[in-house]
Design goal:
The complex is a heterodimer of chains A (about 250) and B (about 60). Helices cover about 80% and strands about 0% of the residues of chain A. Chain A is mainly α and about 250 residues long. The longest helix of chain A is centred in the C-terminal third of the chain and has 34 residues, at about 215-245. Chain A is globular and about 60 Å long. The termini of chain A are far apart. By secondary structure, chain B is mainly α. Chain B has helices at about 1-15, 20-35, 45-65. In chain B, helix 2 (about 20-35) packs antiparallel against helix 3 (about 45-65). The longest helix of chain B is centred in the C-terminal third of the chain and has 19 residues, at about 45-65. The chains are: A mainly alpha (about 250), B mainly alpha (about 60).
Chain lengths: ~250, ~60
């Protein structure tokens, strides 16, 4: 039960935050060609899930958990690393309004290509944006779902998140800059890394002390380590400021 | 050939990301865990420590670049 709740919220948050970034790209131009681009990209991602999901079930559970653990660790650590760099001020926070303006400038300078009633620039931007942002989510959904044997639950969480972001996006017709993206990415990074350690360890032959309870211990350990790293990096950055200003 | 290279570059970027140290550290951590576990040595502590080491090294590289 606890695994299922964890699985649902992690895939929901990961999908939601990527959908917010995709929405910013999608909002740049008119709706018709953009929506077709989104639809086609969604279809491609759906096919990837439909093909990869059942294929992963053919792999023995030990090997699957080792591979899934490795992938979740790599993805989770990338999310966590960026979130720590942003929280400590070494990397700028992701600004959906700024991203929206950049996309608008790029769209304004692009040549308008219309064939068969389609604006192909809008189609391509929407298709590429949704496909690239969605591919990472697909990997998270498929690996997370397959390792627990709950692919439909993981897929449902992802679809629910995308629908929620799409509905809000249609209502406000603006980038969702108030979504606390870095906090969400921090939480997703912690969850992915936690499950990566747990499943990767199991796949490599580890027996975790306390069995499933070890997940909570790993999560707490990683949260404390991340908190300490953010504080340490923030302190170092502030300490380096006068030296930089004086140089 | 250009397409193959672009395809490879996409997957390298997708899996390895901004810092190759993360992927290498994960592979080394899992390898050491499997090595110890297969010899009936308690290895549950390896991955949590490997993750901390990878994070610290990767963050140091990022802040110093």
């Amino acid at each position: 039960m606890a695994h299922g709740i964890f699985l649902f919220f992690t895939t929901f948050l990961a999908s939601g935050v990527e959908a917010v970034e995709a929405l910013t790209i999608v909002l740049v131009r008119g709706w018709r060609s953009t929506l077709i681009g989104v639809g086609v990209a969604g279809l491609v991602l759906g096919v990837v899930v439909a093909v990869l999901g059942p294929a992963l079930r053919l792999i023995p559970i030990g090997t699957l958990r080792l591979v899934v653990g490795a992938l979740l660790l790599v993805f989770g650590l990338q999310w966590l690393r960026k979130a720590i760099l942003r929280s400590s001020g070494y990397k700028a926070l992701h600004d959906e309004n700024a991203a929206f303006r950049e996309e608008q400038e790029a769209a304004a300078s692009a040549t308008r290509v219309e064939r068969a009633g389609m604006d192909w620039y809008s189609f391509t931007i929407a298709f590429k944006g949704v496909l690239l942002e969605g591919l990472e989510v697909v990997f998270i959904v498929v690996t997370f779902g397959a390792a627990q044997g709950r692919l439909p639950l993981a897929a449902a969480a992802a679809v629910a998140a995308v629908l929620a972001v799409a509905i809000v996006g249609v209502l406000v017709r603006a980038p969702l800059e108030r979504v606390p993206e870095n906090t969400i990415k921090f939480a997703v990074g912690l969850a992915l890394t936690t499950f990566g350690i747990f499943w990767g360890g199991e796949g490599a032959g580890v027996s975790w002390p306390g069995s499933d309870l070890a997940i909570l211990a790993i999560l707490a350990f990683l949260a404390v380590v991340s908190f300490v790293l953010v504080r340490q990096l923030r302190r170092e950055r502030i300490a380096a400021l006068p030296a930089e200003a004086g140089a | 050939m250009r397409h193959v290279r672009a395809f490879g570059a996409f997957w390298w970027d997708f899996i390895v990301g901004d810092d190759w140290v993360v992927a290498a550290g994960v592979a080394a951590g899992l390898g050491l865990t499997a090595f110890l576990a297969n010899r009936d040595i308690a290895a549950w502590w390896v991955l949590p420590l490997a993750v901390v080491a990878v994070l610290v090294v990767s963050l140091r590289r990022a802040t110093r670049s």
